[in-house]
Amino acid sequence: MESFVKFAKQLRGSRECTTAEQREEMIREPPPHTQASSEIYQASFAQKMERSNEIKKESLTTPRRVDTPRGPLHKILSGIMQRNRTRIALVEASGKEHCYEEWSNSIQEMAVSIRNAYAKISGETLRNDTIIAVLGDRSGDTLTVCLSVMVAGAAYLPIDSSSPLGRKKALLKESKATCYSGRAVAEADLPLLSISNRPCKRRVLLNSNCVDDLGYVIYTSGTTGVPKGVCVKHDAILNMMTSSTVDFRMKPSDVTYQFTIFCYDNSVLEMFMTLANGAKLLVDDRPFLPRRFVELIDKHSITHCLLFPGVVSTFTSKHFRKLSDLRYWIVGAERLPQALLDTAIEFGINVIQNYGPTEMAAYALTKRMKNTDLGCNLGGPIQNTIMKVTDDDELWLKGKGQMRCYLGWDTIDILKSGGWYATGDRVRQLPNGDVLFLGRRDEQVKVRGHRVELGEIESLISGVTGVKQCKVVLEENEQRLLAFVTVSSALEDVEGKIQARCAEYLPSHMIPAQIMVLSAFPLTKNSKIDVQHLLEDWKASAKTVQLAVLAEKLLERHVDSGLSLLESGGATKEAIQLFRLYQQKYGSTLDLVTLFKCPLREVRQSEHSTEKYRTAGALSAAVDERLRKVWSKVLKRDDIQANDHFFFCGGNSLSLIKLRAEINREFNTVVDINNLLSGLEFREMVTTISSLSLRPRITTVILANEKSTTNLVFVHPLYGGTLSYTSLINALRTKSDFHIIGVQHPNSFGFVSEDLRFFDSVQSLAEQYANEVINLHGDVQQQFLLVDQQYYR
């Protein structure tokens, strides 16, 4: 017993000594900081690389050869569904369930409908490798269509119906799809396939598919270059089905949560790993929220889910602990932060690391993580897959899961000699065969002539206590490295700690020029970190910083960005000059109200910038954002989606009347109930409002006082907007008797919008503005209008 306790202490000791610094040592060599240490570094590194090369020569992986079914995929799926016909196959979050027999019948009937509809529009029988685009969303109906296309003998191309029109048209054109199903796409040159799953007389399918035929075509997200159509064979899908059964220990009683949008490859894994085992697939068409997901775990006894680290890092500690109720949390698509893995292991969460480009049918390497593993350990190959690491540390893959080709590309332009697929990922192979992810080859950037590994900087910063996630980006124009981090709430002086750590371990050219702490990372539709969004936020932040610099030049003295322009000694003249300078430099306008009322560092670009009113698409986007706020206010919920129906989201006839009033108030227009009833889905209502002649709002609430029964309204004079009343308004702010409103035409400081207004007299102008104020802010007992320093009552 004593020897056992001693052995346990030794194990605990070995765990404790695996510090962040020691982990870093395993995956990278510390860079030399001096000329003297440089020579020692070069010598020791050369020796280690020699040993590493020896390992590589001897450890070209031997594949786990496993027989996979050779029969047609549609027959195998049919057999699985028949064997499990009484089991629940598909569950929607609303509670609607479909057993395997019911789902199989729907798929078979829809497949017959697809073949018949295709014959009608083309005059030909549906052939193997025919590509049919499926426009849909995250729903059971969309998955049914995708499976029906495959069972009919074609390959499906998933397209998110909420994508911009230009994106949808481009995919339909580039893919050379013969037709498409789903909601009609304006100006599309392809025929729309009219299909149904109604019972039909003929249930026999003339499907001649073999394992080498196409099953689906998925376009890559484009995060590592130009989006490409990846063509995946039936054989690769069958290999995925048999391998995932073993790797994820799937059982018929399991429940898989469908997290991934159907147009990304992880959705294929989620669907087929479940189908292969007669298990249950839970599809939630509502936006992903940690609180809601935790509720679904309890309600449906979820056992498996694929969640990206970027998503899980937004969980509270309470919600994160709930992942321990799963059999496996499957991780993939982006780097797993070490701190997140350590916390997961500590909470008793079973973590499976999954790695695989879209070109290898969703996944190619896997590993069940242990408490001594590095977060960057990708594990080893799945069945019927082999890998090798080249001399320049690039990972190459080959096997049954490999794609056939890129759509429209010659295979010889894609694969290396011997049929290898080069992933573009840099790795280092361990003696046990596992590989450590070092970063993308395209993450190796040049900063002022120096080669820099962005992944190396991210790993170092992630080792700082309290840092949850890190993303380092190169800003090309100014050649500066930007580090974006999310941290635990208790961490203080995070920038200082990160700078100190970088200064200790990194040469000067690798130290980020700026560190930005975020509450959460912006994510793409595929829930990966949105790098473009990060750069746009940084640019907006940089413009705000420059505002204080411009103000200093105008006022010819130091300006504290914590003060407003008024507090810094500026007046109307300086405000106009600052407005114009900013517009000339950045092509956008400022919000003049906040310019005088708020600290300069908090001033943001005006919603009524010149560029936003130039295209109908931009106007529609602005309407979308503003209408979403109106819906949220009326319905008391924040998760409004494009396909939400007003009455199905808690709305009723009374709240529709309230919605109409709020829309008229927000958009300064007159919409009647019939306009709204013609399209009660959110996206339809956006179209309805966008088609109206909307004017930019001219009124701004300067001082809100909901208890007041009196509105005090200031109307702009001939020149300078309402800024000339700033002193008076500031004096009145101490009084609580007035609800103060400013009326300022958008073109007071130049033609910001195309809404030009001309009046015959001051009286006609006052009458028009009074009507707008009454419509937007209510007819109260007394109204005062101050026009060109004259009061009108």
UniProtKB/TrEMBL annotation:
Gene Ontology molecular function: any one: phosphopantetheine binding
InterPro entries for this protein: AB_hydrolase_fold (IPR029058), ACP-like_sf (IPR036736), AMP-bd_C (IPR025110), AMP-bd_C_sf (IPR045851), AMP-binding_CS (IPR020845), AMP-dep_synth/lig_dom (IPR000873), ANL_N_sf (IPR042099), PP-bd_ACP (IPR009081)
Organism lineage reads as: Eukaryota, Metazoa, Ecdysozoa, Nematoda, Chromadorea
Question: Species name for this entry?
Answer: Nippostrongylus brasiliensis (Rat hookworm)
GO biological process entries: amino acid activation for nonribosomal peptide biosynthetic process; secondary metabolite biosynthetic process
Q: Where is the Carrier domain?
A: 618-693
* Chain segments carrying region Disordered: 15-37, 51-72
| Comp. bias intervals (Basic and acidic residues) | 21-31, 51-68
Chain ranges passing through the membrane: none
Q: Which Gene3D superfamilies match?
A: 3.30.300.30, ACP-like, alpha/beta hydrolase, N-terminal domain of ligase-like
Name a single GO cellular component.
cytoplasm
Signal peptide start and end residues: none
- Record's protein name: Carrier domain-containing protein
